[in-house]
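Sample entry (368 residues):
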Amino acid sequence: MERGKLKIFFGYSAGVGKTYAMLKSAQEAKAGGEDVIIGYLEPHDRPDTLKMAEGLPALPLKNIDYKGITLKEFDVDAALLRRPQIILVDELAHTNALGSKNQKRYLDVEELINNGIDVWTTVNVQHIEGLHDLVDSATSVDVNERIPDEIFDYADEVVLVDIEPETLIQRMREGKIYNKTRAAVALENFFRTDNLSSLRELFMRRNADRIEKQNNNGELKIKVLVLISPSPSSERNIRIAARTADAYHCRFSAMYVERNGDLSDEAAAILKKHMKLVKHLGGDMVVKYGENIVETVADYVRTAGVTDLVIGKTWQSVGKKVGLEDKFIAVLPQLQILIVPDSEHVSYHETILQKITGRLFMPRRVME
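Predicted structure, serialized as tokens:
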């Protein structure tokens, strides 16, 4: 069976017009004789969006009982039975209600595509997994619903839906995005010019990186490796390694060195979470055993041809005359090493944001 195609209407914020643009394209496809249906639509009671949906057939939603409340979700099995040419499934990053067939909506979409159905969907830049900490740093908003980077990177088509931040804010003031009460709260918090401008910059750059990645058919000589541990800070380091690999258009690997036997249940759970994130971001996981971390990592670096190493600046190295990073520099003089400072260094996040969005690469040896 031929695989279906994925078309993403991509924006940097709620209210830019993603769903409207998707519906407008669907109306044009329907007028051209294509079999188009709505699988799930989140109109947010916006009159223009509701009007644009008129005349498009829609699948009934699936009722799911959860703690005495009836929730309505996209019915992926009904869509598979109906088998349209094109199905619209709004809000790709949505988490399905407990009891749904799949935990996340992007898994529903993958199932449809694998069964030969073309899917049109919507997503904002802040929902891309690899940008999570950048979005958090730029906006102080922790976005819980996210999609794997590879779904966005290998979409068959991405339609940019963009408006000026000032225009978006004016639409919010006029009640065209949320009702007046909710809009007033949003304007005081998330919908500020600085937040929207930062997200818009990420939005533009992330799509440009996607295009470069798809067009890069040459040999990939850069190999990125990040060292991880049960420390919570490893989550940030993994994301930085993934973005570094994206900048070079290559994959990345993560290594955990097991040294002294069993981990506590808490540490093992954190490490398992980190390993899951590595896979989620498209990386490869490597586990080695050895008492000497530097020697163990150095052996792998030489064998695998690693060119870029990402390590965290831990409190354990503070005050020591020779830190772990110095030992790596001594035994691997040709290796490019990126040292991630402690998360409390706010300027670090700002520097990373500038480097990723401005397409500047990391310094040759150490970035403090």
